[in-house]
Amino acid sequence: MPVPDILLALLVQGLWGMNFIAAKVGADNLPPLTLTAIRFAIAAAIVVPFMPRPRGQALRGVLILSVTFGTLHFGAMFTGLSMVDAATAAVIIQTGPPFSVLLGVLIFKEVIGWRRILGLVLAFAGVVVVAGEPQMVSVVPVLILLFAALSWAVSNAIVKTTRDLPALAVTGWLSLLAIPQLLVLSWLFEDNQLETVRGLSWEVWGAIVYIAVGGSLAAHSLWYSLLRRHPMTVVAPWGLLAPILGIAAGILVLGEAATWQKLVGGAITLTGVGIIQIRSARKGRPVGTPPDEPEAHLGDAPEAAPNRKRTTP
Asked: What pLDDT score does 140 carry?
């Protein structure tokens, strides 16, 4: 890539890396489901008025995505993030691409080679190491974040049904449809939401706006401009910088503990994810970018091929 595009790729990874910090600030100051609803309300208000309404199969896809991606992925991710530090969450949530590969094997009967099998083993082994951190008093947040990553992977497979819609339209409409789901769950499981929102500082509001705009809409728009100009094999590996920056920012900005489990486990997981990303991109079946918006994977979801196996080492 030319130097301007390299700088653009670095900017996007910086936006995504700092998104973990902003999300942690939000999750520490708001009930997680309430935070998710506000995040989607901001995104929907910016996007929906300017985008076409989904119809037919696209509408069904967006409805399903509003559950799997909007409510389950983001609701679980912010819930888990409220229970662990940002650096730990940045590692665990990277298991989305490995889960996508597993779904490809289980649902689409894809046959994978030893390199991606090695990537899967490394990705989940790193999470086991991270789960052994001294401050990790319970395995519950690890399981919640793994569920968030699995929900991302499921959404990555579903999003192909929305190809008739512009990417931002998918984001806007699934955000709008997820809001009532999240509000009902928040009413059932959370307390003092209105009082908490009224008492938020401008710094927390800034973090929330950043989650919805800077780390999502702006970053993804820039990312797609790169994807339009360069092959996925060139662009996808840059996505591995975001969790590294997220881990570093959690330690340096938020003062989180730099335990050996976090550093070693993170390195193992990212090595495994890197193997999966690079091998999949070379075979023309990239499994996506850092988990955030489903439009990152439009056109990249595995095509169903129940009667045809592929060997992709």
From this structure: 92
